[in-house]
Amino acid sequence: MIAAALTFFNPGIDPEFLGTVPLAVGTPMGETALVVALVGMLFAIGGAAVDASLSGAYAMAQFFGWEWGKYRKPGEAPRFTLTWLVFIATAALVMATGIDPVMVTEYSVIFGVVAMPLTYLPVLAIANDHGYMGRYANGRLSRSLGWFYFS
After folding, report:
1. What is the pTM of this model?
2. How far apart are CA 94 and CA 97, in angstroms?
3. Domain ranges in the chain?
């Protein structure tokens, strides 16, 4: 915090943007430290992007029953490979438009809260159905707690 205050406060730099963060290292330690910090950020952000796109592709592949997995070559799992590439390309397009990704995340959380009851109600209904779940159906306590959480 002290390094950030010394780096950003006097010149009036607003550290709101990701590109200003490495200045906290570059100012006191020089250009080499700045380059190291930028390369580290590149790998961290790139790794997170690849991880997120692979996670989405894994979820879609499992849902639709496609071939997937790290032991499959791209030609053996073409839909999986295409899916994660589309996720990366879509993210790049969103970034190219200048849309703030933090705002996108905030709006997705808001819409997720709105959609949550629509996804929870069918699960609750099935869990309470003795004809479908048999002996694994919710009991009186589980049913009461489920409806309490739902409302």
Report:
1. 0.61
2. 5
3. 100-151
